[in-house]
Design a protein that fits this description.
The protein is built from twelve helices and twelve strands. It has about 300 residues and is α/β, with parallel strands linked by helices. The structure holds ketopantoate.
């Protein structure tokens, strides 16, 4: 069994390290950057609870070195999905590969729909925590459930195959559940990110601090409620009280620097477009106005 992880960021590296612990399992990174791929080839360091483990993972920027894959985990940012999948096409073995896409926000859903892929992509939503210390060294930041599912109807045979993939991931220490309403989970995570990420940048603070700042707390609630109204208009089932849920995530990840604030601090492009921006775009299609999210995007 061969798994290829596309994108050696925090989540991709965590998946690679966990899967590489399974003996007889062949784990690869496909990295667009040949120099980085060269440095990643051979070993990956995983830190869990202060202990370090060295895992054998191969890496290449050339799909021809890798050959066809049984499982592909797409762990690049939403804006890089189309290019990354185009580069990865030689890895797909007709109908027998499974592709799972793990992106924040909802921007990737439209991109995936427009790409004519040889296989039906699976959408993944995870609450596993991971921090990239440096390329090739990842820290496990907390166990969480991963949910995977197809967006549309697929034949029973494909559902059953996805069930075996979920078992395989679970055996590798990545608890995974197949669901038939993955869009609900994508939106539930979107609302949390809508309420937290941009505000941690505006207030330059860890997630938990948003709860101690009355202005931030008010903006969090308003942004999430706008998101909930769009979800409802689209017929998506999100929890009745997404504001409490978002506040609970702030409390549970109080010391965490959100991925958006990390991007800003490292001078990287943020995912505001895939999160609040993509929400605004959906609202516009529905003729809805979201002043708070517009303000967050335009700041
Ligand atoms: O997903 C996150 C992110 O930072 O992108 C949260 C849940 C806000 C945790 O930091």
């Amino acid at each position: 069994m061969k798994t290829v992880i596309i994108g050696p960021g925090a989540l991709g590296s965590l998946f690679a390290a966990q899967l590489a612990a399974l003996e007889t399992h062949d784990v690869w990174f496909l990295d667009h950057d040949p120099e980085r791929a060269k440095s990643l080839n051979g070993k990956l360091l995983l830190t869990i609870g202060g202990q370090e483990f060295c895992r054998k993972v191969s890496a290449s920027a050339n799909p021809a070195d890798i050959g066809s894959a049984d499982l592909l985990l797409l762990c690049v940012k939403s804006r890089n999905v189309a290019v990354a999948l185009n580069d990865a096409l030689p890895l797909f073995s007709s109908s027998s590969s499974t592709l799972i896409c793990f992106q924040n926000g909802i921007g990737h859903l439209d991109i995936l729909e427009k790409l004519k892929l040889p296989i039906e992509p699976v959408i993944g939503v995870t609450s596993m925590g991971a921090t990239l210390i440096e390329p090739g060294h990842v820290c496990h930041g907390g166990q969480g459930l991963t949910r995977i599912g197809f967006l549309g109807q697929v034949p029973l045979e494909k559902q059953q195959k996805l069930g075996s993939v979920a078992e395989f991931l679970t055996d590798a220490g990545l608890p995974t559940q197949c669901v038939d309403n993955i869009l609900d989970f994508v939106w539930a995570k979107l609302l949390v990110n809508v309420g937290i990420n941009a505000l941690t940048v505006i207030f330059n603070c860890p997630n938990g601090e948003l709860l101690n700042n009355p202005e931030a707390k008010k903006m969090l609630a308003a942004a999430v409620l706008e998101g909930q109204s769009v979800a409802k208009a689209l017929g998506i089932n999100v929890t009745e009280d997404p504001v409490s849920q978002t506040r609970a995530v702030c409390a549970a990840t109080a010391g965490n620097i959100s991925s958006m604030l990390q991007d800003v601090r490292r001078g990287r492009q943020t995912e505001i477009g895939a999160i609040n921006g993509a929400l605004l775009a959906k609202a516009e299609e529905l003729g809805m106005n979201l002043p708070v999210n517009r303000d967050l995007v335009e700041r």
